[in-house]
Amino acid sequence: MNKINLSDISTRAPEGMDKKAVKAVTQEIVQELDELQNLLFAEHKHAVLVVLQGMDASGKDGLIRNVLGNMNPQGVNVRGFKAPTEEEKDHDFLWRIHRFAPAKGMIHVFNRSHYEDILVQRVHKWIDDETAVKRMQAINDFERLLVEHNNTAVLKFYLHVSEEKQKERLKERMEDPHKMWKYNKNDSTEIKLRKDYLKMYEDAIEHCNDVKWIILPSDQNWYKEYVVAQTLRDTLRSFRMEYPKL
Amino acid sequence: MNKINLSDISTRAPEGMDKKAVKAVTQEIVQELDELQNLLFAEHKHAVLVVLQGMDASGKDGLIRNVLGNMNPQGVNVRGFKAPTEEEKDHDFLWRIHRFAPAKGMIHVFNRSHYEDILVQRVHKWIDDETAVKRMQAINDFERLLVEHNNTAVLKFYLHVSEEKQKERLKERMEDPHKMWKYNKNDSTEIKLRKDYLKMYEDAIEHCNDVKWIILPSDQNWYKEYVVAQTLRDTLRSFRMEYPKL
Question: For residue A150, which residues of chain B lie inside 8 Å, CB to CB?
Answer without folding.
Answer: 90-92, 95
